[in-house]
Amino acid sequence: MLHGMTNSIQSEGISMNTSTATPIVVDLDGTLTPTDTLVESLVRLVKQSPLNLPRLALWLFKGRAGFKSAVAAQVPPPRILPYHEPLLTYLREEKAKGRKIVLATAAHRSIADGVATHLDLFDQVLASDADLNLKGAAKLRAIRETVGESFVYAADSPADLQIWQAATAAILVNVAPRTADQVRRAVPIEHEFSPETIGLVVWLQALRVHQWLKNLLLFVPLLTAFSFTDISKLTSMVLAFLAFSFAASATYMVNDLWDLENDRAHPRKRLRPFASARLPILNGLAVAAGVLLLAFGLAFTVSTGFFLMLLLYLVLTTAYSWALKEYVLIDVLMLSLLYTLRILAGSVAVGIPASSWLLAFSVFMFLSLALVKRCAELVSLGEIGAAATLGRDYRVSDLVVLWPLGVGAALSAVVVFELFISAPETQSRYGTPQMLWLVAIGLIYWLARLWVKTSRGEMHDDPLVYAITDLGSRITVFGMIAVMLAAHFLTLGLSL
To answer: Whole-prediction pTM value?
Structure first.
Protein backbone atom coordinates (compact mmCIF):
# COMPACT_ATOMS: atom_id res chain seq x y z
CA MET A 1 0.00 0.00 0.00
CA LEU A 2 1.24 3.46 -0.87
CA HIS A 3 1.60 6.08 1.80
CA GLY A 4 2.00 9.83 1.28
CA MET A 5 4.53 12.02 2.99
CA THR A 6 4.34 15.70 3.76
CA ASN A 7 6.68 17.76 1.58
CA SER A 8 7.94 21.10 2.79
CA ILE A 9 7.43 22.82 -0.57
CA GLN A 10 4.97 25.68 -0.27
CA SER A 11 2.53 26.69 -2.98
CA GLU A 12 2.02 30.21 -4.24
CA GLY A 13 -1.27 31.90 -4.96
CA ILE A 14 -3.44 31.06 -7.97
CA SER A 15 -2.61 33.22 -10.97
CA MET A 16 -5.89 32.64 -12.81
CA ASN A 17 -9.20 30.87 -12.47
CA THR A 18 -9.88 28.02 -14.84
CA SER A 19 -13.33 26.61 -15.47
CA THR A 20 -14.14 23.54 -13.45
CA ALA A 21 -15.12 21.97 -16.76
CA THR A 22 -11.48 21.95 -17.85
CA PRO A 23 -9.79 18.67 -16.82
CA ILE A 24 -6.45 18.65 -15.04
CA VAL A 25 -3.85 16.26 -16.44
CA VAL A 26 -1.12 15.45 -13.92
CA ASP A 27 2.36 14.09 -14.51
CA LEU A 28 3.75 11.59 -11.96
CA ASP A 29 7.56 11.57 -11.65
CA GLY A 30 8.88 14.86 -10.31
CA THR A 31 5.38 16.29 -10.09
CA LEU A 32 2.90 14.27 -8.08
CA THR A 33 5.82 12.45 -6.47
CA PRO A 34 9.22 14.16 -6.20
CA THR A 35 11.04 10.90 -6.94
CA ASP A 36 11.78 9.01 -10.17
CA THR A 37 9.85 5.75 -10.05
CA LEU A 38 11.94 4.09 -12.78
CA VAL A 39 15.19 4.78 -10.93
CA GLU A 40 13.63 3.44 -7.73
CA SER A 41 12.58 0.29 -9.60
CA LEU A 42 16.15 -0.14 -10.87
CA VAL A 43 17.54 0.17 -7.35
CA ARG A 44 15.12 -2.48 -6.11
CA LEU A 45 15.98 -4.73 -9.06
CA VAL A 46 19.70 -4.56 -8.26
CA LYS A 47 18.84 -5.06 -4.58
CA GLN A 48 17.12 -8.32 -5.49
CA SER A 49 20.36 -9.50 -7.11
CA PRO A 50 23.44 -7.63 -8.40
CA LEU A 51 23.44 -10.19 -11.21
CA ASN A 52 20.52 -8.27 -12.69
CA LEU A 53 22.92 -5.52 -13.85
CA PRO A 54 23.95 -7.39 -17.07
CA ARG A 55 20.28 -8.03 -17.81
CA LEU A 56 19.58 -4.30 -17.68
CA ALA A 57 22.13 -3.74 -20.44
CA LEU A 58 20.39 -6.32 -22.63
CA TRP A 59 16.94 -4.85 -21.98
CA LEU A 60 18.10 -1.49 -23.34
CA PHE A 61 17.97 -2.99 -26.84
CA LYS A 62 14.20 -3.32 -26.43
CA GLY A 63 13.76 0.45 -26.53
CA ARG A 64 12.46 2.63 -23.71
CA ALA A 65 8.98 1.11 -23.60
CA GLY A 66 10.34 -2.44 -23.69
CA PHE A 67 12.97 -1.60 -21.08
CA LYS A 68 10.38 -0.23 -18.63
CA SER A 69 8.12 -3.20 -19.24
CA ALA A 70 10.97 -5.67 -18.63
CA VAL A 71 11.88 -3.94 -15.36
CA ALA A 72 8.22 -3.85 -14.25
CA ALA A 73 7.92 -7.59 -14.92
CA GLN A 74 10.75 -8.28 -12.46
CA VAL A 75 9.91 -5.94 -9.59
CA PRO A 76 6.48 -5.03 -8.18
CA PRO A 77 5.48 -1.35 -8.07
CA PRO A 78 6.75 0.55 -5.00
CA ARG A 79 4.59 0.06 -1.93
CA ILE A 80 5.44 3.45 -0.47
CA LEU A 81 6.06 6.74 -2.26
CA PRO A 82 6.48 10.32 -1.07
CA TYR A 83 3.97 12.77 -2.55
CA HIS A 84 3.92 16.49 -3.18
CA GLU A 85 1.34 17.19 -0.51
CA PRO A 86 0.44 20.80 -1.47
CA LEU A 87 -0.29 19.68 -5.04
CA LEU A 88 -2.24 16.68 -3.80
CA THR A 89 -4.35 18.92 -1.57
CA TYR A 90 -5.06 21.26 -4.49
CA LEU A 91 -6.09 18.37 -6.75
CA ARG A 92 -8.44 17.01 -4.10
CA GLU A 93 -10.05 20.44 -3.73
CA GLU A 94 -10.57 20.68 -7.49
CA LYS A 95 -11.91 17.12 -7.59
CA ALA A 96 -14.47 18.08 -4.92
CA LYS A 97 -15.64 20.88 -7.24
CA GLY A 98 -16.47 18.27 -9.86
CA ARG A 99 -13.34 18.66 -11.94
CA LYS A 100 -11.97 15.69 -13.90
CA ILE A 101 -8.45 14.65 -12.83
CA VAL A 102 -6.30 12.50 -15.14
CA LEU A 103 -2.92 10.91 -14.39
CA ALA A 104 -0.66 10.88 -17.47
CA THR A 105 2.82 9.50 -16.97
CA ALA A 106 5.73 7.91 -18.80
CA ALA A 107 6.03 5.47 -15.89
CA HIS A 108 4.93 1.90 -16.51
CA ARG A 109 1.25 1.08 -16.26
CA SER A 110 1.75 -1.07 -13.14
CA ILE A 111 3.24 1.87 -11.22
CA ALA A 112 0.60 4.34 -12.41
CA ASP A 113 -2.25 2.00 -11.54
CA GLY A 114 -0.80 1.44 -8.07
CA VAL A 115 -0.64 5.18 -7.43
CA ALA A 116 -4.17 5.69 -8.74
CA THR A 117 -5.55 2.89 -6.59
CA HIS A 118 -3.96 4.28 -3.46
CA LEU A 119 -4.89 7.93 -3.96
CA ASP A 120 -8.40 7.24 -5.26
CA LEU A 121 -8.26 10.58 -7.07
CA PHE A 122 -7.99 10.03 -10.81
CA ASP A 123 -10.80 9.54 -13.28
CA GLN A 124 -8.46 8.09 -15.89
CA VAL A 125 -4.88 6.82 -16.05
CA LEU A 126 -2.58 7.12 -19.08
CA ALA A 127 0.77 5.31 -18.81
CA SER A 128 3.50 3.50 -20.72
CA ASP A 129 3.20 -0.14 -21.69
CA ALA A 130 5.33 -2.69 -23.54
CA ASP A 131 4.67 -1.00 -26.91
CA LEU A 132 4.47 2.72 -26.12
CA ASN A 133 6.63 5.05 -24.04
CA LEU A 134 4.16 7.77 -23.05
CA LYS A 135 6.40 10.81 -23.19
CA GLY A 136 6.50 14.04 -25.17
CA ALA A 137 4.50 13.87 -28.41
CA ALA A 138 3.15 10.41 -27.56
CA LYS A 139 1.76 11.68 -24.26
CA LEU A 140 0.20 14.72 -25.95
CA ARG A 141 -1.56 12.51 -28.51
CA ALA A 142 -2.90 10.26 -25.76
CA ILE A 143 -4.17 13.27 -23.78
CA ARG A 144 -5.94 14.72 -26.82
CA GLU A 145 -7.50 11.38 -27.70
CA THR A 146 -8.69 10.79 -24.12
CA VAL A 147 -9.37 14.24 -22.69
CA GLY A 148 -9.71 16.48 -25.72
CA GLU A 149 -8.05 19.74 -26.79
CA SER A 150 -8.96 21.66 -23.63
CA PHE A 151 -6.99 20.66 -20.53
CA VAL A 152 -4.73 22.03 -17.80
CA TYR A 153 -1.37 20.32 -17.51
CA ALA A 154 0.53 19.92 -14.22
CA ALA A 155 4.21 19.01 -14.57
CA ASP A 156 7.75 19.91 -13.58
CA SER A 157 10.22 19.35 -16.42
CA PRO A 158 11.43 21.12 -19.58
CA ALA A 159 10.55 17.85 -21.34
CA ASP A 160 6.89 18.81 -20.78
CA LEU A 161 7.10 22.12 -22.71
CA GLN A 162 5.41 20.65 -25.78
CA ILE A 163 2.41 19.56 -23.72
CA TRP A 164 2.23 22.84 -21.76
CA GLN A 165 2.19 24.80 -25.01
CA ALA A 166 -0.76 22.74 -26.24
CA ALA A 167 -2.68 23.09 -22.96
CA THR A 168 -5.35 25.59 -21.99
CA ALA A 169 -3.37 26.51 -18.87
CA ALA A 170 -0.46 25.24 -16.81
CA ILE A 171 0.19 24.15 -13.24
CA LEU A 172 3.88 24.49 -12.41
CA VAL A 173 5.36 22.15 -9.82
CA ASN A 174 8.96 22.68 -8.73
CA VAL A 175 9.78 24.19 -12.13
CA ALA A 176 13.14 25.92 -12.68
CA PRO A 177 12.84 29.71 -13.26
CA ARG A 178 13.98 29.55 -16.90
CA THR A 179 11.45 26.87 -17.80
CA ALA A 180 8.73 28.65 -15.83
CA ASP A 181 9.33 31.83 -17.89
CA GLN A 182 8.97 29.85 -21.12
CA VAL A 183 5.67 28.39 -19.95
CA ARG A 184 4.33 31.79 -18.84
CA ARG A 185 4.98 33.21 -22.29
CA ALA A 186 3.03 30.34 -23.89
CA VAL A 187 -0.03 29.79 -21.67
CA PRO A 188 -1.76 31.19 -18.57
CA ILE A 189 -0.66 29.81 -15.20
CA GLU A 190 -3.47 28.34 -13.13
CA HIS A 191 -1.33 27.54 -10.10
CA GLU A 192 2.34 27.45 -9.20
CA PHE A 193 4.15 25.47 -6.53
CA SER A 194 7.59 26.93 -5.90
CA PRO A 195 10.61 24.63 -5.76
CA GLU A 196 12.25 23.89 -2.44
CA THR A 197 15.76 25.24 -2.06
CA ILE A 198 18.09 22.32 -1.40
CA GLY A 199 21.09 23.70 0.43
CA LEU A 200 24.26 22.37 1.97
CA VAL A 201 22.44 21.36 5.16
CA VAL A 202 20.40 18.73 3.32
CA TRP A 203 23.52 17.23 1.76
CA LEU A 204 25.25 17.19 5.15
CA GLN A 205 22.24 15.28 6.46
CA ALA A 206 22.58 12.78 3.62
CA LEU A 207 26.30 12.41 4.30
CA ARG A 208 25.43 12.03 8.00
CA VAL A 209 28.35 14.17 9.06
CA HIS A 210 27.23 13.88 12.69
CA GLN A 211 28.03 10.16 12.43
CA TRP A 212 31.67 11.02 11.82
CA LEU A 213 31.97 11.22 15.59
CA LYS A 214 31.93 7.41 15.60
CA ASN A 215 35.23 7.51 13.77
CA LEU A 216 36.85 9.24 16.75
CA LEU A 217 37.28 5.63 17.87
CA LEU A 218 40.32 5.56 15.58
CA PHE A 219 42.01 7.88 18.10
CA VAL A 220 41.51 5.42 20.98
CA PRO A 221 44.89 3.60 20.52
CA LEU A 222 46.61 6.99 20.40
CA LEU A 223 44.80 8.03 23.58
CA THR A 224 45.34 4.80 25.52
CA ALA A 225 49.05 4.84 24.60
CA PHE A 226 49.20 8.53 25.61
CA SER A 227 50.98 9.35 22.32
CA PHE A 228 48.73 12.25 21.33
CA THR A 229 51.67 14.68 21.56
CA ASP A 230 53.44 12.88 18.69
CA ILE A 231 52.77 15.24 15.75
CA SER A 232 53.59 12.61 13.11
CA LYS A 233 51.20 10.06 14.59
CA LEU A 234 48.56 12.73 15.17
CA THR A 235 48.76 13.86 11.53
CA SER A 236 48.39 10.28 10.29
CA MET A 237 45.42 9.80 12.58
CA VAL A 238 43.67 12.94 11.30
CA LEU A 239 44.06 11.71 7.70
CA ALA A 240 42.82 8.27 8.76
CA PHE A 241 39.82 9.86 10.46
CA LEU A 242 38.91 11.79 7.31
CA ALA A 243 39.34 8.68 5.14
CA PHE A 244 37.06 6.60 7.36
CA SER A 245 34.55 9.43 7.61
CA PHE A 246 34.26 9.92 3.85
CA ALA A 247 34.02 6.17 3.30
CA ALA A 248 31.35 5.91 5.99
CA SER A 249 29.36 8.73 4.38
CA ALA A 250 29.44 6.90 1.05
CA THR A 251 28.13 3.72 2.67
CA TYR A 252 25.45 5.64 4.58
CA MET A 253 24.18 7.17 1.36
CA VAL A 254 24.11 3.86 -0.50
CA ASN A 255 22.45 2.22 2.50
CA ASP A 256 19.76 4.92 2.56
CA LEU A 257 19.08 4.32 -1.14
CA TRP A 258 18.98 0.60 -0.45
CA ASP A 259 16.42 1.07 2.32
CA LEU A 260 14.07 3.62 0.75
CA GLU A 261 10.82 1.75 1.36
CA ASN A 262 11.75 0.60 4.86
CA ASP A 263 12.79 4.14 5.81
CA ARG A 264 9.53 5.56 4.46
CA ALA A 265 7.60 3.24 6.74
CA HIS A 266 9.56 4.43 9.79
CA PRO A 267 8.15 7.31 11.88
CA ARG A 268 11.41 9.29 11.80
CA LYS A 269 13.55 7.81 9.04
CA ARG A 270 10.91 8.75 6.47
CA LEU A 271 12.19 12.34 6.75
CA ARG A 272 15.69 11.45 5.54
CA PRO A 273 16.77 13.30 2.35
CA PHE A 274 16.46 10.30 0.02
CA ALA A 275 13.41 8.71 1.64
CA SER A 276 11.54 12.01 1.36
CA ALA A 277 12.96 12.49 -2.19
CA ARG A 278 14.39 15.92 -1.35
CA LEU A 279 17.57 14.64 -3.00
CA PRO A 280 17.51 12.70 -6.32
CA ILE A 281 18.76 9.13 -6.25
CA LEU A 282 21.20 9.55 -9.16
CA ASN A 283 22.76 12.62 -7.55
CA GLY A 284 23.20 10.65 -4.36
CA LEU A 285 25.00 7.83 -6.19
CA ALA A 286 27.33 10.32 -7.89
CA VAL A 287 28.22 12.07 -4.61
CA ALA A 288 28.72 8.71 -2.87
CA ALA A 289 31.17 7.63 -5.58
CA GLY A 290 33.05 10.93 -5.29
CA VAL A 291 33.54 10.84 -1.53
CA LEU A 292 34.54 7.16 -1.70
CA LEU A 293 37.33 7.95 -4.18
CA LEU A 294 38.47 10.75 -1.86
CA ALA A 295 38.50 8.29 1.05
CA PHE A 296 40.68 5.85 -0.90
CA GLY A 297 43.16 8.60 -1.76
CA LEU A 298 43.50 9.65 1.87
CA ALA A 299 43.84 6.04 3.04
CA PHE A 300 46.73 5.43 0.63
CA THR A 301 48.40 8.54 2.03
CA VAL A 302 48.34 7.02 5.54
CA SER A 303 49.66 3.55 4.70
CA THR A 304 48.94 0.43 2.66
CA GLY A 305 47.95 -1.44 5.80
CA PHE A 306 45.40 1.22 6.72
CA PHE A 307 44.03 1.18 3.16
CA LEU A 308 43.46 -2.58 3.50
CA MET A 309 41.68 -2.02 6.84
CA LEU A 310 39.42 0.52 5.15
CA LEU A 311 38.67 -1.98 2.39
CA LEU A 312 37.80 -4.60 5.01
CA TYR A 313 35.48 -2.10 6.70
CA LEU A 314 33.73 -1.41 3.39
CA VAL A 315 33.35 -5.12 2.61
CA LEU A 316 31.82 -5.82 6.02
CA THR A 317 29.60 -2.73 5.82
CA THR A 318 28.36 -3.77 2.39
CA ALA A 319 27.66 -7.29 3.61
CA TYR A 320 25.75 -5.78 6.52
CA SER A 321 23.72 -3.45 4.30
CA TRP A 322 22.93 -6.01 1.60
CA ALA A 323 22.15 -9.05 3.71
CA LEU A 324 23.29 -9.38 7.32
CA LYS A 325 21.14 -6.60 8.77
CA GLU A 326 18.04 -8.62 7.92
CA TYR A 327 18.92 -11.35 10.43
CA VAL A 328 18.03 -11.01 14.07
CA LEU A 329 21.05 -10.56 16.42
CA ILE A 330 23.55 -11.05 13.57
CA ASP A 331 23.05 -7.40 12.70
CA VAL A 332 23.93 -6.13 16.19
CA LEU A 333 26.93 -8.44 16.40
CA MET A 334 28.14 -7.07 13.08
CA LEU A 335 27.66 -3.49 14.29
CA SER A 336 29.75 -4.19 17.40
CA LEU A 337 32.50 -5.68 15.20
CA LEU A 338 32.43 -2.67 12.88
CA TYR A 339 32.93 -0.34 15.85
CA THR A 340 35.82 -2.49 17.10
CA LEU A 341 37.30 -2.52 13.60
CA ARG A 342 37.62 1.26 13.81
CA ILE A 343 39.86 0.86 16.85
CA LEU A 344 41.97 -1.74 15.06
CA ALA A 345 42.24 0.53 12.02
CA GLY A 346 43.48 3.32 14.27
CA SER A 347 46.13 0.98 15.64
CA VAL A 348 47.31 0.16 12.12
CA ALA A 349 47.33 3.83 11.09
CA VAL A 350 49.80 4.83 13.83
CA GLY A 351 51.55 1.52 14.44
CA ILE A 352 50.37 1.12 18.04
CA PRO A 353 49.15 -2.41 18.90
CA ALA A 354 45.66 -2.60 20.41
CA SER A 355 45.54 -4.54 23.67
CA SER A 356 43.30 -7.56 24.15
CA TRP A 357 41.67 -5.69 27.07
CA LEU A 358 40.66 -2.86 24.78
CA LEU A 359 39.26 -5.16 22.11
CA ALA A 360 37.23 -7.23 24.60
CA PHE A 361 35.87 -4.09 26.22
CA SER A 362 34.87 -2.57 22.86
CA VAL A 363 33.04 -5.70 21.67
CA PHE A 364 30.80 -5.79 24.77
CA MET A 365 30.37 -2.01 24.91
CA PHE A 366 29.32 -1.66 21.29
CA LEU A 367 27.11 -4.73 21.40
CA SER A 368 25.20 -3.02 24.20
CA LEU A 369 24.96 0.25 22.22
CA ALA A 370 23.79 -1.62 19.10
CA LEU A 371 21.07 -3.27 21.17
CA VAL A 372 20.09 0.16 22.53
CA LYS A 373 19.54 1.23 18.93
CA ARG A 374 17.35 -1.79 18.12
CA CYS A 375 15.37 -1.53 21.35
CA ALA A 376 14.77 2.18 20.77
CA GLU A 377 13.37 1.41 17.31
CA LEU A 378 11.10 -1.31 18.70
CA VAL A 379 9.86 0.98 21.46
CA SER A 380 9.01 3.62 18.86
CA LEU A 381 7.16 1.06 16.74
CA GLY A 382 5.27 -0.19 19.77
CA GLU A 383 4.11 3.34 20.53
CA ILE A 384 2.43 3.60 17.11
CA GLY A 385 0.92 0.13 17.33
CA ALA A 386 3.27 -1.66 14.92
CA ALA A 387 4.28 -5.24 15.67
CA ALA A 388 7.52 -5.65 13.72
CA THR A 389 10.20 -3.79 11.77
CA LEU A 390 10.29 -3.73 7.98
CA GLY A 391 13.45 -5.14 6.43
CA ARG A 392 14.75 -6.49 9.74
CA ASP A 393 13.77 -9.65 11.58
CA TYR A 394 12.72 -7.93 14.81
CA ARG A 395 9.39 -7.86 16.58
CA VAL A 396 8.22 -5.66 19.42
CA SER A 397 7.74 -8.85 21.48
CA ASP A 398 11.52 -9.47 21.19
CA LEU A 399 12.12 -6.68 23.72
CA VAL A 400 11.78 -9.19 26.58
CA VAL A 401 14.95 -10.87 25.29
CA LEU A 402 16.80 -7.84 23.98
CA TRP A 403 16.53 -5.83 27.23
CA PRO A 404 18.52 -8.31 29.41
CA LEU A 405 20.92 -9.09 26.57
CA GLY A 406 21.79 -5.42 26.12
CA VAL A 407 22.10 -4.69 29.84
CA GLY A 408 24.18 -7.85 30.28
CA ALA A 409 26.56 -6.76 27.51
CA ALA A 410 26.91 -3.37 29.21
CA LEU A 411 27.78 -4.95 32.55
CA SER A 412 30.24 -7.32 30.82
CA ALA A 413 32.05 -4.29 29.39
CA VAL A 414 32.28 -2.83 32.90
CA VAL A 415 33.65 -6.13 34.29
CA VAL A 416 36.32 -6.26 31.55
CA PHE A 417 37.31 -2.68 32.41
CA GLU A 418 37.54 -3.53 36.11
CA LEU A 419 39.78 -6.51 35.34
CA PHE A 420 41.89 -4.21 33.17
CA ILE A 421 42.46 -1.95 36.20
CA SER A 422 44.14 -4.81 38.06
CA ALA A 423 46.23 -5.97 35.09
CA PRO A 424 50.04 -5.62 35.50
CA GLU A 425 50.41 -3.43 32.38
CA THR A 426 47.84 -1.01 33.80
CA GLN A 427 49.63 -0.81 37.11
CA SER A 428 52.89 0.05 35.32
CA ARG A 429 51.41 2.51 32.79
CA TYR A 430 49.26 4.62 35.13
CA GLY A 431 50.63 6.82 37.88
CA THR A 432 47.52 6.25 40.03
CA PRO A 433 45.62 3.28 38.55
CA GLN A 434 43.23 3.24 41.53
CA MET A 435 41.58 6.37 40.11
CA LEU A 436 40.28 4.25 37.22
CA TRP A 437 37.63 2.84 39.55
CA LEU A 438 35.92 6.23 39.21
CA VAL A 439 35.78 5.57 35.45
CA ALA A 440 34.16 2.19 36.13
CA ILE A 441 31.49 3.91 38.24
CA GLY A 442 30.99 6.45 35.44
CA LEU A 443 30.52 3.62 32.93
CA ILE A 444 27.89 1.96 35.09
CA TYR A 445 25.99 5.23 35.42
CA TRP A 446 26.23 6.20 31.73
CA LEU A 447 25.26 2.81 30.31
CA ALA A 448 22.44 2.37 32.81
CA ARG A 449 21.21 5.88 31.95
CA LEU A 450 21.07 4.96 28.24
CA TRP A 451 18.98 1.89 28.98
CA VAL A 452 16.61 3.77 31.28
CA LYS A 453 16.08 6.43 28.61
CA THR A 454 15.50 3.70 26.05
CA SER A 455 12.84 2.03 28.20
CA ARG A 456 11.08 5.39 28.55
CA GLY A 457 11.01 5.90 24.78
CA GLU A 458 13.31 8.93 25.06
CA MET A 459 16.23 7.44 23.16
CA HIS A 460 17.04 8.64 19.63
CA ASP A 461 17.35 5.88 17.03
CA ASP A 462 21.11 6.26 17.36
CA PRO A 463 22.55 6.30 20.92
CA LEU A 464 25.51 8.34 19.65
CA VAL A 465 23.21 11.16 18.62
CA TYR A 466 21.53 10.98 22.01
CA ALA A 467 24.88 11.05 23.81
CA ILE A 468 25.88 14.17 21.89
CA THR A 469 22.66 16.04 22.67
CA ASP A 470 22.16 14.80 26.24
CA LEU A 471 23.88 17.02 28.81
CA GLY A 472 24.22 14.24 31.39
CA SER A 473 25.92 11.97 28.85
CA ARG A 474 28.35 14.68 27.76
CA ILE A 475 29.35 15.50 31.34
CA THR A 476 29.84 11.82 32.20
CA VAL A 477 31.91 10.95 29.11
CA PHE A 478 34.18 14.00 29.40
CA GLY A 479 34.51 13.33 33.12
CA MET A 480 35.67 9.74 32.49
CA ILE A 481 38.24 10.91 29.93
CA ALA A 482 39.54 13.53 32.38
CA VAL A 483 39.89 10.94 35.15
CA MET A 484 41.79 8.55 32.85
CA LEU A 485 44.24 11.29 31.95
CA ALA A 486 44.67 12.23 35.61
CA ALA A 487 45.21 8.58 36.55
CA HIS A 488 48.03 8.38 34.02
CA PHE A 489 49.86 11.61 34.77
CA LEU A 490 49.29 11.97 38.52
CA THR A 491 51.04 9.87 41.16
CA LEU A 492 49.07 10.18 44.38
CA GLY A 493 50.36 7.11 46.21
CA LEU A 494 46.89 5.64 46.72
CA SER A 495 46.46 1.98 47.59
CA LEU A 496 43.35 -0.21 47.67
So the answer is: 0.78
